[in-house]
Automatic annotation (TrEMBL):
It holds the Pfam family FAM32A. Residues 27-36 have a biased composition (Basic and acidic residues). GO terms for cellular component: nucleolus. Residues 14-42 are annotated as: Disordered. Keywords: Coiled coil. Residues 49-95 form a coiled coil. The keyword Coiled coil applies. This is DUF1754-domain-containing protein.
Length: 104
């Protein structure tokens, strides 16, 4: 056989030290969860981030626009949707057309 002289068993590293797996660091989310779970007075309180007036106004306007868009789509009948799609398709240039270059 060709494989008779092959040594079996696990690989051994120089120095004879054993391999130890690295411990994973705790993420911020797990730290916050641990702080919330432990009700000891030594845990730091979690600070909630308040949104500014501009951020609140922005979200309000975004919601309003989304609602108007949904309402506008809901008002269309199937026939109108198909007609609009056909109109868009006709306005598009056909990307697979071979452009005419040069004379003739």
């Amino acid at each position: 056989m060709d494989y008779e002289n092959v040594a079996g068993g696990t690989l051994k590293f120089k120095g004879g030290g054993s391999i130890s797996k690295k411990k994973k660091k705790k993420t911020d989310a797990s730290k916050v969860k641990a702080a919330l779970d432990s009700e000891s007075p030594t845990a730091k309180p979690v600070k909630l981030i308040e949104k500014t007036a501009a951020e609140l106004k922005f979200e309000e306007v975004q919601k309003k626009r989304q609602e108007e868009k949904v309402h506008k789509q809901a008002m269309k009948s199937h026939k109108e949707k198909v007609a609009e799609l056909n109109r868009k398709l006709e306005e598009m240039t056909e990307h697979y057309d071979i452009p005419k270059v040069g004379p003739g």
